[in-house]
Amino acid sequence: MTITNEQVAEYTFLKALRGDGYYPLRLIEKGAVILQDLCVRIERDRPADLPALYALTEEATERFNALQEEFWAADSEIETVARDEIATDFYFVAQAYGFPSADMEDLVEARDW
Fold first, then answer.
1. Domain encompassing residue 50
2. What is the DSSP letter of 24?
3. 72 touches 27 (CB < 8 A)
4. Is-contact 85 19, C-beta < 8 A?
5. pLDDT of residue 1
């Protein structure tokens, strides 16, 4: 499924991490795919309220939790800059899909990074 939300389709996920040699590009791309997959799920499943949205973001956050292992294996990690960028992108997604009252911390509550 293609993302139909124009604002999201034109957005570059994890932009602040790109070009920083500390973060392997292949892992940044995997993170971007997690966020794109979240957008596809939102468009397909159309969460009716914040709890439904948070259920979808929890699944995506769990995928980032698993990706942390790959960052460690590459002598990198999801540290302060990456955590902020990931959470900011989750928040962007919530806003773009009409959830203005979404809480950034609640969107990534399941994180272990």
1. 25-107
2. -
3. no
4. no
5. 78
Helices in the chain by DSSP H: which ranges? 6-9, 25-45, 50-73, 80-96, 104-107
Asked if 22 and 77 touch (Cβ cutoff 8 Å), the reply is no
pLDDT digit string, tens, across residues 68-113 = 999 999 999 999 999 999 999 999 999 999 999 999 999 999 999 8
Residue 16 lies in a domain: no
Residue 58 resides in a domain = yes
CB 108 within 8 A of CB 87: yes
Q: Is residue 87 part of a domain?
A: yes
80 is a domain residue: yes
Opening angle at CA 112, ends 27 and 66, nearest 5: 40
Q: Which tens digits make up the pLDDT trace of 15-41?
A: 999 999 999 999 999 999 999 999 999
Specify the DSSP class assigned to residue 49.
S
